[in-house]
Amino acid sequence: MTTPDYRPAEIHAPYLLFLGDIEDSVSAKMARAVVTWRPDKAVGQLRMTGSTVSVGIEDLSIAEAVARGARTLVIGVANSGGKLPGHWRDVIVEAIRHGMDVASGMHQRLTAIEGVNELARDKGVTLHDIRHSHPPLEVGNGERRQGTRVLTVGTDCSLGKMFSSLAIQRGLEEAGVRARFRATGQCGVLVAGEGVAIDAVIADFIAGAVEWLSPAGDDDQWDIIEGQGSLFHPAYAGVSLGLLHGAQPDWLVMCHELGRPHMRHLPGRPMPEMSACIEANLWAARVTNPDVRLAGFSVNTSNVDEETARRELKTLEERFGVPATDPIRFGIAPIVHALTGGRT
To answer: Which NCBIfam families does this chain map to (predicted)?
Structure first.
């Protein structure tokens, strides 16, 4: 298997990040991904109401953004189910009329919105359905392949697997290690400019898609593969399992959020017990790599004060014998140190 040479159509910057009228900050992860990892590409944000979530950049209208050079309206939202609310259509149409491309990571295609495809064609603009842009894929084969691979996994969905993967990749590069971020979600693809949104791949081809994303490489080449979902989430466990098999990871990094009361979108389902979650992920990963190990924990501690965060991280470290850190609050260095055997 050769190194991937497929690239989705280029999404031209600068972007205007459209947040619709969402009030759930977690759903704004497309916009937050751009602001955090590619801030130079965002000219502003567009919100429909005063109570809409903000990602901390200037509010602009479509006309104002175009005057500042914006070329693409990016739907900055990834909601449950991936459906574009019908009342957002007018904003999308206005952007197209102003000559802007439109990029979306939703399951529902932009081209399926009444009149949008025809208008885009008339105006000569491009519609980017990020989740549905990938090459023909094969089923996975599970054959051992050269190179080193790290996969982020989680106790739940939407708790920092993409952020952790990008932080690890950057940390390894700063330590002199050749490392590539392999995007498997629509936010990651937007940041990286390439990848496959795994949750839009037919189930039989999930493992094969990840094998394609992270093919055999040199011994000193590291692939940091963005995880998705959780083995313990009833809605998304299938995607998580396919990733574990296709990634053939040498290392797992467990992502978690302190204080999360229940699985996302499922108030009646408690968060899994940590040791059971770790063992389930290691057990599944051993199907394609019997030597897989846990490298550490990447934990979102934003819901607690610093003293509590340090205490909880220390408890994880003492219990499981691997480093635990919050990559935003305390940096990713402990995990990079563990991955490289203390060479950093």
So the answer is: DgcN (NF041892)
